[in-house]
């Protein structure tokens, strides 16, 4: 597998002239690097990171893919600390089969890339399983994503220039159109997590997807969408939209996402829902205006087509944020926040401290 993979620009708004395209192709830094043994080549910038240990003889290793965002880290020490804590807990509990490799997909840019690579290099030295690191350039991915998600950004973004208004934060929505076809499943995670069990067990959840499901995701554990869907709920007083579990539809939290990319590619229904006309139709139906990017899209689609989703148990994304308890919903908060069972992944969303071991 080549170290660098480039791709033509699709649907760009300002396409360069052919000569410029040729020059760009000659020097392009593509979306990702494959590092390590097994015959891959290395980029000079990332030669130091190698997969460990060598592959056993026989059939090729089975790849397990895990992706996370790591941007603007050079001016965000809190993000660096969260990433270190999350990865350290993952590695502490992580165990894979002898023929398995965990591919860490790092979506990053500029100075953040160097910070992220240094962090991974240091932490992965003691990993108990084989691994590879794959770098995705934010600008490359954004360029591919923008034509797909442009229409939905105005419905699910906080506003111009804010965190979720960037196309990259809709990556999970259209990852099946971005990743190479040989990657059929991938897990995308936030960095404010703490793993309490083997990450391999989370990959097993793909086998629990019911027919027609393309995404695995846990429920939102605050009454966020009870609030967001207030107008629809007022017009439809018997609706389950925004109601707490187990019988209601509280919406989703995208801190832990299982993306069956092959199923997403094959699902006519899911791809229809990405079309601008369908996004517009649903946002009008539900009077929806959000600010949480992909999470809002999945939540709205889940209200309309719940069969597309495999609902993860709350213990796989035990959110800790309690903001809405103190902002008008104390009477119903515990109905959303309740989670029974041994926690497998803590999610310290809205900067909530995660319990120590």
TrEMBL record:
Major location, coarse class? endoplasmic reticulum
Q: Which Pfam families match?
A: Glyco_transf_8
Q: Which reaction does it catalyse?
A: 3-O-[alpha-D-xylosyl-(1->3)-beta-D-glucosyl]-L-seryl-[EGF-like domain protein] + UDP-alpha-D-xylose = 3-O-[alpha-D-xylosyl-(1->3)-alpha-D-xylosyl-(1->3)-beta-D-glucosyl]-L-seryl-[EGF-like domain protein] + UDP + H(+)
Write down the required cofactor(s): Mn(2+); Mg(2+)
InterPro entries, per this entry?
A: Glyco_trans_8, Nucleotide-diphossugar_trans, XXLT1
- Superkingdom per UniProt: Eukaryota
Q: Where in the cell is it found?
A: Endoplasmic reticulum membrane
List residues traversing the bilayer: 20-36
- The EC class name is transferase
Supply one GO molecular-function term: xylosyl alpha-1,3-xylosyltransferase activity
Q: Which family does it belong to?
A: Belongs to the glycosyltransferase 8 family.
Report what the protein is called. Answer: Xyloside xylosyltransferase 1
